[in-house]
Structures
1.
Amino acid sequence: VHKVEAGVIESGIAISGNLRPIETVSIRARIEGDLVALNVREGDFVREGQVLAEFEASEQEAALRSAQADELAARTEASTAQWNLDQTKELFTAGAVAERDLRAAEQTALTAKARYAAAESRVKAASSLQRDTKVVAPVNGMVERRTVENGERVTRGAQLFTVVRSDVLELAAAVP
């Protein structure tokens, strides 16, 4: 007969292996252009959203300003066309203009609205391209590899950095 007591049982086997990050993120260029700033080096810790590199952005900024000006012109044109349509409807109701003039005013208003929608889309596309001139870290982690240098011409889709998440690691080992 033996009395049962609480205790710690330690038993295990010695294994050796490699610790590796659970996630490795490859950061690629979304646009083609010249790099004007590299803000990190290999081994640097980065936070999500941190700017890692910047492309020459004058072309994208000019395209955005042009698209915004086109949007303003299209909005003004659509507003004027809608006002003309409203006035033509009132005149048609009073019998002062022909139905043909009403139909022409409706068509003009629809065309102006379509131009405005297209201009809005161009602004969104230009904003996206302008935003892509800044390369940001998608996750918190450490820069494992930097494959570009400052001033280098980079093609679209080229790999710029590899960032590893080192907050959670996994062990790769052979167990006997």
Note: The first helix runs from residue 58 to 94.
2.
Amino acid sequence: MNNIHPTAIIDPSAKLDPSVKVGPYTVIREDVVVGAGTVIGAHAVLEFVHMGKDNIISDASYIGVAPQDLKYAGEKTLLVMGDRNKVREGATLNRGTAAFGETKIGNDCLFMTCSHVAHDCQLGNQVILANCVALAGHVEVGDGCVFGGFVGVHQYVKIGRFCMLGAGSMVAKDVPSFCNAQGDRATLRGLNLVGMRRAGLHRDSVSAIREAYRTLFLSGRPWDEALAEVRASGVTEVQDMVRMIDGSKRGITRPATGVQAEEEVTL
């Protein structure tokens, strides 16, 4: 227990691996599980969170705290985190509500200063939220997404894999996988070619995604006709885009103008 500062307050029910380090004046309340190698800074507050190993929880961050939802009536819910996540100063990650029961965060994510993940959100792996990004309740985010500073995302919006959301964007509709979006309200600005390249997608897959994007958003063809053509593709990543579109309840983010989108997608 030498890793725990004497001023820290830890509930007897908390389960901390012996290697966990806890800084001064941190409060760890009930139903907390922390995996090996995790470092928790000063003045942090943790409750109702189960996290894996090697996470870094910075000073004055709030992990697993109660949802900011008027319907929340104190029911027991959780925040579940994976491994190697970094939560910077002042970030707030809320636990779930009775609607879903859990807020889920994958592995290797970064939550910069003052970012916020609301109740019942579902985040994949390697997601980056820059400063002051705010995800409302029930937002779903795929692997490898990057949110620029001050992005706001509406409740129940789905963000596909490897999307890039430009700084200051207000996102009110679902964003298909592999796309860039920006603006208030956000519109598509082409494909996240840099993100796909970093993810190691094969050149043929990238070409198929570009063709699908053009067919759906730039061809000017009737939507049902364009979607039927794209749906026939045998490329896994294209089918990822199709599943998002088929499952959308809030509607799909689209380009503001075909000319602008064409310039972006051909970079």
Note: The chain has a mean pLDDT of 95.
3.
Amino acid sequence: MEKNKYVDFLSDEDFLKCVQWVCDAYPKEKRKQDMKKLQKNTLDPFKLYFDAINKEKSVNEWLVMESSRQYDKTVNNRVGEFHQMVLGKVIGWEDLGRGDKTGLDLKKSDSSIFIELKNKENTVNSSSMAKVYDKLEKALEDYPNAIMYWGFVFSMKGDSGEKVWKYLGKENSKIKMVWGKKLYELITGDKNALDKLFEALPKAILDISESHKNLTQKDLKQMVDIFKESFKN
């Protein structure tokens, strides 16, 4: 059997589909400022005044900056969705997408585990957190033998872990939190799965993008240092 080129917990075809999803959010050619497209998201002329004067930008320079910001917002959203797509393609798991009755993001195919997935812990405010907990409680009523998780990739402490989620005096051994490398380990069974994903990513991006950018050893070292700081333990 031929060895996978990228990661051993996902087929090359599936992995490249996930990477392609993010890469497609980037413009394929050097972008010109399309005023109609920029105005579709409503340009803020008040912010233009503040930026132009405080950042010493011409209007055209500001339009380039705003165009980049709008593309970056799309890219950021897709990077968050990337993890859901990857984990949902692991054998024995499903990406629930939208429209599932639980409203959750991922489940084990035998319905023994469900996960509400977020990219970063600090993007969930108190109001959103209450909604997540309520959603997990509701899903548990429909699947009383399952374990329900709030999962996130990046924690504010830069660590990894798993524990029962105690929230506003509520505690249920079937409602848990899982984050960082433990999230990937829970789904793949491999404690090094997230490391493998990170290591394979630049190779996959270069294989499918039109970029010919070769990262220097200095670049790679800096990226690895940032990864280690984000997942310290």
Note: The longest strand covers residues 113-120.
4.
Amino acid sequence: MENPKELIMASLSGEDGNMTPEVLKLMKRRITPESRLPPMEFLFQMFGVECFPRGELVAVTGKAKSGKTFFLSLLMAAYQGRVMWYDTEQSEQSTQDILVNRIMKMDGAEGVKGIANTSPKADELQIRQNLIHAFNTRGIGWEERRRLFAAGVAYLQPDLVIIDGVRDLISDINDGVEAQQVTEQLMALAQQHHCCIVCVLHQNKGDGDRNLRGWIGTELTNK
């Protein structure tokens, strides 16, 4: 009788021709020291540390009114590639105001008003408008909001994606199953489309509690 250990090792090394479809599928995801993997790509570098990797989820958190949207505006203004900003919280007027009078101005492009169509600034503004795609989805249901988000990422193929805020992609912030589902969907989108998805979520209300809110916060922390 063959040694059971040898049988297992032969199966794992691919020498067993009777592997099930599930095992064959699993073996395609095996990582070895010889696996040829592309290096991680990062969109930013802060204080000498690379951050915001492609194919990953990043959480931006803080207390209410702590400057999260201002920080995200800095990111969007600084990044020169394709950006998708998915605003679920503010009014349409606020989204536009931040886009025109904060992001564009920090980027060096002036606001829309007062720029002649033939000026170099107008050309620069048009380029930035083609790269920064801002959407406001505050007035629609969470299920449609999630579907539109996935469709937008697949269509636009952005490098940097901002969800402000991610809790509006689910019905119940404390539903563990739903939180896991949306987190896995976002991770799959980030990997499939090779982008960095930044999820904005408030911290718990207590002054000394800096944990992300709800089960969705727990799932994001785990990822």
Note: The longest helix spans residues 176-192.
